[in-house]
Task: inverse folding
């Protein structure tokens, strides 16, 4: 009997982007340009039937596959190529990466393909508008501080009036109390002098 030849197991995979690297997409558009990757073994020969997964960012610039999913899988053809198409891009401008992983048997390889979503004139206009409005906030700060200042001054004045009233009450009740309060006696005596003058014939 003749033994059937056993296919050699692939030990190493190599993956590279053949078409679509660095593509710039319009916000909210559907992908018109395919992203094509090629998978080869350690000798550079194309690897057929390798599973290639494409993973999009969950947030920020990016997009989604059919059904709103952020992951899709393609299989390489006889030339070792897998094609990604039909993406719906979102409206967030900026740079993002599509994570690509190829696997066949026990061998795996991965890479990131960078893409861009263009900035529209409306998006660019938002930044200056926001920056021009920013200086308005500090302008109200002095008004708030001045209000606090006047409230504090009014409170202190009211407190002084209450203190003067208490001291006046003490002076009419007892002359000794007035004598002991020498530092504040002058205002109390000034109020009391007219009262004595009114009492003379």
Result:
């Amino acid at each position: 009997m003749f033994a059937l030849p056993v296919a050699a197991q692939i030990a190493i995979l190599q993956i590279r982007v053949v078409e679509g690297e660095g593509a710039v997409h319009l916000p909210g558009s559907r992908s018109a340009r395919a992203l094509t990757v090629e998978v080869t073994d350690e000798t550079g020969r194309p690897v057929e039937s390798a599973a290639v997964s494409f993973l999009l960012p969950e947030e920020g610039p990016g997009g989604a596959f059919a059904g709103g999913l952020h992951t899709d899988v393609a299989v390489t053809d006889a030339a070792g190529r897998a094609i990604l198409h039909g993406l719906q891009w979102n409206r967030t401008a900026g740079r993002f990466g599509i994570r690509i992983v190829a696997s066949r048997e026990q061998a795996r390889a991965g890479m990131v393909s960078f893409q861009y979503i263009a900035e529209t004139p409306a998006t660019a206009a938002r930044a200056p508008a926001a920056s021009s409005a920013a200086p308005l906030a500090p302008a109200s700060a002095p008004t708030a501080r001045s209000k606090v200042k006047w409230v504090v001054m009014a409170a202190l004045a009211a407190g002084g009036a209450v203190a003067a009233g208490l001291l006046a009450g003490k002076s009419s009740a007892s002359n000794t109390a007035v004598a002991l309060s020498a530092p504040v006696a002058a205002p109390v005596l000034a109020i009391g002098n007219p009262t004595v003058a009114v009492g003379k014939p």
